Amino acid sequence: MVKKQRAFLKWAGGKYSLIEEINKLLPDGDRLIEPFVGAGSVFLNTDYDEYLLNDINKDLINLYQAIQKKPQSFIEDAKAFFTEQCNQAEAYYHLRSEFNASVDSYYRSLLFLYMNRHGYNGLCRYNKSGGYNVPFGKYKKPYFPEAEIEFFAEKAQKAIFICEGYRQTFARVQNNDVIYCDPPYVPLSKTASFTSYAGNGFGLDEQADLANAAEETVADKKATVLISNHNTIWTRKIYQGANKRKAIQVARTISQKGSNRKKVGELLALYKPAK
């Protein structure tokens, strides 16, 4: 059995625990396209010749490109922020302010990793002005993911990273591509929404439009599309056009206390081209 690879970022809604189920549904192909790459667990745990990886979060893509180009320099520079002195609330808020004021893409990439590991619960959140606003996490000794970054950097040589809207990424699809979509999930309740993750709302209209994009792409491009989401009445309705829908129970990973991590229903919707 091949060892599962963890992403180097902590990520709300990361797909590490779902990899086996996703891989059962993803077909063989030359290229995997991810319009919502997030922490990249599916990218890290699949084996395609090429990857086209998109996310609307510019800081995330900027980080991936920095690691892809100069992994060892990045690791050495990033390590400087994983010290006892930097793991204090005052230092964290100072560096967060520096991040929000900086236009230097490389410095922002270093601080993005620092805040991901030192901020509360691995959340990634911005205010309406575009400022990163996740509070300090109060961890005893944040883990520096050196081995995970090295694995990512090696695999990234097969990838192209882009930052655009999901519809623009769908426009790049070619025949026989495989597309995996992990959009911001439909909230299970009115208060449980992470859709402000990149400062862009991803509401019910966008959810339905993504399902439309999947149907159109399968019909036009002979490509396969797999979408994951919460299993709700709404998602079961918008994914009615899928060839296969698979419901599974998955443990939540966003709660800080393990005892509070309840299982939630996930839905995988697979759209396949006609033979």
Automatic annotation (TrEMBL):
The keyword Nucleotidyltransferase does not apply. InterPro entries: Ade_MeTrfase_dom_2, DNA_methylase_N6_adenine_CS, M_m6A_EcoRV, MeTrfase_D12, SAM-dependent_MTases_sf. It comes from the Bacteria. GO terms for molecular function: S-adenosyl-L-methionine binding; sequence-specific DNA binding; site-specific DNA-methyltransferase (adenine-specific) activity. S-adenosyl-L-methionine binds at residues 11, 15, 55, 182. One of its GO terms (biological process) is mismatch repair. The keyword Glycosyltransferase does not apply. Its EC number is 2.1.1.72. It catalyses: a 2'-deoxyadenosine in DNA + S-adenosyl-L-methionine = an N(6)-methyl-2'-deoxyadenosine in DNA + S-adenosyl-L-homocysteine + H(+). Keywords: Methyltransferase, S-adenosyl-L-methionine, Transferase. This is Site-specific DNA-methyltransferase (adenine-specific). It comes from Thalassotalea marina.
